[in-house]
Amino acid sequence: MTKTHTLDVPGARVRYEVRGEGPLLLLMGSPMGAAAFELLADELSSDHTVVTHDPRGIAGSPLHDPDEDSTPEKRADDVAALIDAVGTGPADVFGTSGGAMTVLALATRHPGLVRTVIAHEPPVLEFLPDAAEQRAKTDDVIDTCHRHGPIEAYAKFAANSGLDTEEQGSPGAAGPSSAQDLADAARF
Protein backbone atom coordinates (compact mmCIF):
# COMPACT_ATOMS: atom_id res chain seq x y z
CA MET A 1 0.00 0.00 0.00
CA THR A 2 1.34 3.39 -1.01
CA LYS A 3 0.67 6.44 1.14
CA THR A 4 1.15 9.87 -0.46
CA HIS A 5 2.15 12.88 1.64
CA THR A 6 3.42 16.42 1.21
CA LEU A 7 6.03 18.20 3.28
CA ASP A 8 6.66 21.93 3.42
CA VAL A 9 10.36 22.74 3.10
CA PRO A 10 12.02 26.13 2.66
CA GLY A 11 10.90 27.42 -0.73
CA ALA A 12 8.83 24.40 -1.80
CA ARG A 13 6.27 21.73 -0.98
CA VAL A 14 7.62 18.22 -1.60
CA ARG A 15 5.30 15.38 -2.59
CA TYR A 16 6.46 11.96 -1.41
CA GLU A 17 5.25 8.37 -1.21
CA VAL A 18 5.88 5.75 1.46
CA ARG A 19 5.52 1.99 0.92
CA GLY A 20 6.18 -1.09 3.05
CA GLU A 21 7.86 -1.66 6.39
CA GLY A 22 11.42 -2.31 7.44
CA PRO A 23 14.72 -0.45 7.13
CA LEU A 24 14.37 2.95 5.48
CA LEU A 25 15.32 3.14 1.80
CA LEU A 26 14.99 6.25 -0.37
CA LEU A 27 15.03 6.07 -4.19
CA MET A 28 15.49 9.27 -6.16
CA GLY A 29 16.33 10.86 -9.44
CA SER A 30 16.36 14.34 -10.87
CA PRO A 31 14.58 15.42 -12.95
CA MET A 32 12.74 12.09 -12.54
CA GLY A 33 10.04 12.06 -9.91
CA ALA A 34 8.50 9.31 -7.80
CA ALA A 35 6.66 7.75 -10.76
CA ALA A 36 9.96 6.66 -12.35
CA PHE A 37 10.64 4.42 -9.34
CA GLU A 38 7.16 2.97 -8.83
CA LEU A 39 7.86 -0.62 -9.95
CA LEU A 40 11.19 -0.84 -8.12
CA ALA A 41 9.69 0.72 -4.97
CA ASP A 42 6.83 -1.80 -5.04
CA GLU A 43 9.32 -4.70 -5.28
CA LEU A 44 11.55 -3.44 -2.48
CA SER A 45 8.67 -2.58 -0.14
CA SER A 46 8.24 -6.24 0.85
CA ASP A 47 11.07 -5.84 3.37
CA HIS A 48 11.85 -2.08 3.44
CA THR A 49 10.10 1.19 4.12
CA VAL A 50 10.60 2.74 0.68
CA VAL A 51 10.30 6.49 0.14
CA THR A 52 10.14 8.08 -3.30
CA HIS A 53 9.50 11.74 -4.02
CA ASP A 54 9.16 14.42 -6.66
CA PRO A 55 12.20 16.69 -6.26
CA ARG A 56 11.55 20.40 -5.75
CA GLY A 57 10.08 22.00 -8.88
CA ILE A 58 9.35 18.62 -10.52
CA ALA A 59 5.90 17.03 -11.02
CA GLY A 60 3.96 17.32 -7.73
CA SER A 61 6.52 19.38 -5.80
CA PRO A 62 5.91 23.05 -6.60
CA LEU A 63 8.32 25.85 -5.77
CA HIS A 64 7.19 29.03 -4.07
CA ASP A 65 9.37 30.94 -6.55
CA PRO A 66 9.29 29.16 -9.95
CA ASP A 67 12.49 30.96 -11.00
CA GLU A 68 14.51 29.53 -8.09
CA ASP A 69 17.32 27.14 -9.01
CA SER A 70 17.18 23.56 -7.79
CA THR A 71 20.64 22.64 -6.55
CA PRO A 72 21.88 19.30 -5.20
CA GLU A 73 22.33 20.99 -1.82
CA LYS A 74 18.72 22.23 -1.67
CA ARG A 75 17.44 18.84 -2.81
CA ALA A 76 19.66 17.15 -0.17
CA ASP A 77 18.16 19.35 2.55
CA ASP A 78 14.68 18.37 1.29
CA VAL A 79 15.61 14.67 1.51
CA ALA A 80 16.97 15.20 5.03
CA ALA A 81 13.59 16.70 5.96
CA LEU A 82 11.86 13.67 4.40
CA ILE A 83 13.98 11.28 6.46
CA ASP A 84 13.11 13.27 9.59
CA ALA A 85 9.40 13.28 8.64
CA VAL A 86 9.29 9.52 8.10
CA GLY A 87 11.21 9.16 11.36
CA THR A 88 12.96 5.82 10.84
CA GLY A 89 16.45 6.93 9.81
CA PRO A 90 19.27 6.59 9.19
CA ALA A 91 18.44 5.63 5.62
CA ASP A 92 19.95 3.72 2.75
CA VAL A 93 19.75 6.05 -0.25
CA PHE A 94 19.92 5.36 -3.98
CA GLY A 95 20.09 8.17 -6.49
CA THR A 96 20.46 8.11 -10.25
CA SER A 97 21.51 10.94 -12.55
CA GLY A 98 20.73 14.23 -10.79
CA GLY A 99 19.45 12.12 -7.89
CA ALA A 100 22.99 10.74 -7.54
CA MET A 101 24.18 14.31 -7.06
CA THR A 102 21.46 14.73 -4.42
CA VAL A 103 22.55 11.66 -2.43
CA LEU A 104 26.20 12.74 -2.58
CA ALA A 105 25.21 16.16 -1.23
CA LEU A 106 23.02 14.47 1.41
CA ALA A 107 25.94 12.36 2.64
CA THR A 108 28.12 15.48 2.82
CA ARG A 109 25.57 17.79 4.46
CA HIS A 110 23.72 15.29 6.70
CA PRO A 111 26.05 12.31 7.26
CA GLY A 112 24.18 11.14 10.37
CA LEU A 113 21.01 10.55 8.33
CA VAL A 114 22.52 8.08 5.85
CA ARG A 115 23.75 4.54 6.33
CA THR A 116 24.49 3.53 2.72
CA VAL A 117 24.83 5.74 -0.36
CA ILE A 118 24.55 4.45 -3.91
CA ALA A 119 25.22 7.18 -6.47
CA HIS A 120 24.36 5.79 -9.91
CA GLU A 121 25.73 7.77 -12.86
CA PRO A 122 26.20 11.15 -11.19
CA PRO A 123 26.85 13.80 -13.86
CA VAL A 124 30.19 14.87 -12.37
CA LEU A 125 31.96 16.18 -15.44
CA GLU A 126 35.06 17.25 -13.58
CA PHE A 127 36.32 13.64 -13.34
CA LEU A 128 36.23 13.06 -17.09
CA PRO A 129 39.45 13.33 -19.12
CA ASP A 130 37.67 15.75 -21.50
CA ALA A 131 35.96 17.74 -18.74
CA ALA A 132 36.28 21.14 -20.44
CA GLU A 133 34.75 19.80 -23.67
CA GLN A 134 31.92 18.10 -21.78
CA ARG A 135 31.22 21.28 -19.77
CA ALA A 136 31.01 23.25 -23.03
CA LYS A 137 28.57 20.69 -24.47
CA THR A 138 26.47 20.85 -21.29
CA ASP A 139 26.41 24.65 -21.44
CA ASP A 140 25.28 24.35 -25.08
CA VAL A 141 22.41 22.03 -24.06
CA ILE A 142 21.31 24.55 -21.42
CA ASP A 143 21.55 27.44 -23.88
CA THR A 144 19.58 25.44 -26.46
CA CYS A 145 16.84 24.79 -23.88
CA HIS A 146 16.57 28.51 -23.13
CA ARG A 147 16.56 29.49 -26.81
CA HIS A 148 14.64 26.63 -28.45
CA GLY A 149 12.99 24.57 -25.72
CA PRO A 150 13.48 21.20 -24.03
CA ILE A 151 12.86 18.97 -27.07
CA GLU A 152 15.79 20.42 -29.04
CA ALA A 153 17.90 20.48 -25.88
CA TYR A 154 17.10 16.83 -25.20
CA ALA A 155 18.19 15.89 -28.72
CA LYS A 156 21.60 17.48 -28.05
CA PHE A 157 21.79 15.83 -24.63
CA ALA A 158 20.94 12.42 -26.11
CA ALA A 159 23.51 12.78 -28.90
CA ASN A 160 26.24 13.84 -26.45
CA SER A 161 25.31 10.96 -24.11
CA GLY A 162 25.61 8.41 -26.88
CA LEU A 163 21.91 7.56 -27.00
CA ASP A 164 20.82 6.33 -30.44
CA THR A 165 17.80 8.51 -31.11
CA GLU A 166 17.36 7.12 -34.63
CA GLU A 167 16.90 3.48 -33.62
CA GLN A 168 13.25 2.50 -33.06
CA GLY A 169 12.68 1.69 -29.40
CA SER A 170 15.96 3.23 -28.31
CA PRO A 171 15.92 4.69 -24.78
CA GLY A 172 17.02 8.01 -26.25
CA ALA A 173 14.30 8.03 -28.90
CA ALA A 174 11.47 8.99 -26.59
CA GLY A 175 12.71 12.12 -24.86
CA PRO A 176 10.18 14.22 -22.97
CA SER A 177 6.70 13.47 -24.31
CA SER A 178 3.91 14.41 -21.91
CA ALA A 179 3.16 17.97 -20.85
CA GLN A 180 4.53 17.12 -17.38
CA ASP A 181 7.71 15.62 -18.90
CA LEU A 182 8.23 18.78 -20.94
CA ALA A 183 7.66 21.02 -17.91
CA ASP A 184 10.06 18.92 -15.80
CA ALA A 185 12.69 18.90 -18.57
CA ALA A 186 12.46 22.68 -18.95
CA ARG A 187 12.68 23.09 -15.16
CA PHE A 188 15.68 20.77 -14.92
Task: Provide key terms for this protein.
188 residues, alpha/beta, Rossmann fold, 2 domains, six-stranded mixed sheet, 6 strands, globular
How much of the sequence is in beta strands?
A: 15-25%
* Overall pLDDT confidence: 90
Number of distinct beta strands: 6
Number of helices: 7
Description:
- The chain has helices at 38-44, 72-86, 98-109, 131-148, 150-161, 171-174, 179-187; strands at residues 2-9, 12-19, 24-30, 49-53, 91-97, 114-120.
- By secondary structure, it is an alpha/beta fold.
- It has two domains: 2-123, Alpha/Beta hydrolase fold, catalytic domain (Rossmann fold, 3-Layer(aba) Sandwich); 126-187, no CATH class.
- α1 links the parallel β3 and β4 (49-53).
- α2 crosses α3 (98-109) and α4 runs antiparallel to α5.
- The protein is globular and about 45 Å long.
- The model is unreliable at 168-173 (pLDDT under 50).
Structure described in brief:
The protein is an alpha/beta fold and 188 residues long. The protein has helices at 38-44, 72-86, 98-109, 131-148, 150-161, 171-174, 179-187; strands at residues 2-9, 12-19, 24-30, 49-53, 91-97, 114-120.
